[in-house]
Amino acid sequence: xxxxxxxxxxxxxxxxxxxxxxxxxxxxxxxxxxxxxxxxxxxxxxxxxxxxxxxxxxxxxxxxxxxxxxxxxxxxxxxxxxxxxxxxxxxxxxxxxxxxxxxxxxxxxxxxxxxxxxxxxxxxxxxxxxxxxxxxxxxxxxxxxxxxxxxxxxxxxxxxxxxxxxxxxxxxxxxxxxxxxxxxxxxxxxxxxxxxxxxxxxxxxxxxxxxxxxxxxxxxxxxxxxxxxxxxxxxxxxxxxxxxxxxxxxxxxxxx
Length: 256
What we know:
This protein has helices at 14-19, 160-163, 181-190, 207-225, 250-255, and strands spanning 21-23, 29-32, 53-55, 76-78, 99-101, 124-126, 147-149, 170-172. By secondary structure, the chain is an alpha/beta fold. The protein has a domain at 29-121 and 128-137 and 151-172: Alpha-Beta Horseshoe (Leucine-rich repeat, LRR (right-handed beta-alpha superhelix)), CATH 3.80.10.10. Strands 1-2-3-4-5-6-7-8 form an 8-stranded mixed sheet. It is globular.
């Protein structure tokens, strides 16, 4: 009596887990336990540790146990939209992992395990929508990384070891409190490999995340629809030559 009642999530049995296995496009076995109202990591799924993909996204998980290392075949791990405050060091043992999504949690830089830099085959890493105030320079060891999401954190800088990863093609660091946002954009443009990064489908986003994305999209569309004022158009009345940029219509100039 008087004891606060904790939030009780859905209990996942081995039977439920087995019925949640799907075959992915490339023929791999995917254990899909997303949107199940899970509050604690279900120990029963350790008996299914030979799956290729594990989806525990959009639950209420606060912790991932060290036993995650039993999933040695794992290539794809989705933990986005939970309440994770840290990750176990054992995650670094998942050497076959090429996709890791831990977006929209409560991760801090202090609680990011250094062992993340051991995931040598990682291609896609999403750390967006967390509480990171810096990115470990050790992530520069992930030489196979092609896409990284760092958006909606508390970052003031991105280490060169990450920005200059040899195979990096997409980096999204939007909505961070960079001291000089223009300078950050210049860094991104200089390597000609940075694009907007979306790692979650629209249908998979929670209401708050979807609203953020839609608001940003609306702002972008408004900017695209703004017609530049004619008064701002450069005028060069003394430079009327066929090669000049002063006239839009060169044929008209030649006819005169």
